[in-house]
Amino acid sequence: MLGIRKLTDLILEQITRWINPIINGWINYYGSFCRSELYRVLLEVNKALIWWARHK
Predict the structure, then answer these.
(1) What pTM was computed for the model?
(2) Taking a C-beta distance cutoff of 8 angstroms, is the pair 9, 52 a contact?
(3) CB neighbourhood size of 7 (10 A)
(4) In angstroms, rounded to a whole number, what is the distance separating the alpha carbons of residues 45 and 16?
(5) Among positive and negative, which fits the CA dihedral 28, 29, 35, 41?
(6) Which residues contact 9 (CB under 8 A, 6 or more apart)?
(7) How far from each other are the two terminal CA atoms of the chain, in whole angstroms?
(8) Are 5 and 52 contacting, i.e. CB atoms less than 8 angstroms apart?
(9) Each residue's pLDDT tens digit in the chain (56 positions)?
(10) pLDDT the model gives residue 9
(11) Which of 4, 6, 21, 33 could make an S-S bridge to 48, C-beta 3.0–4.6 Å?
(12) What distance in Å separates the CA atoms of residue 35 and residue 27, rounded to the nearest whole number?
């Protein structure tokens, strides 16, 4: 998902600048049409970021 796991050479600020517009779009879309799916999507993003931080 998003390829976050491959970006271990970046710092957290770079990751957040890259991923923020994507996440905002998902929040706007899923928040309007399907809130239950928004929760699942954000859980997956959280898992990917945790994996990234552990392997940094």
Answers:
(1) 0.65
(2) no
(3) 15
(4) 12
(5) negative
(6) none
(7) 17
(8) yes
(9) 566 666 666 777 887 888 889 889 888 888 888 888 888 888 988 888 888 888 77
(10) 67
(11) 4
(12) 9
Per-residue b or e along 11-49, where b marks 16 or more CB atoms closer than 10 Å to that residue's CB: eeeebeeebeeeeeeeeeebeeeeeeebeebeeebeebb
Beta-carbon contacts of 19 under 8 Å, excluding residues fewer than 6 positions away, are 2, 4, 45
**CA 37, 42, 48, 51 torsion-angle sign:** negative
Do 45 and 33 contact (CB within 8 A), yes or no? no
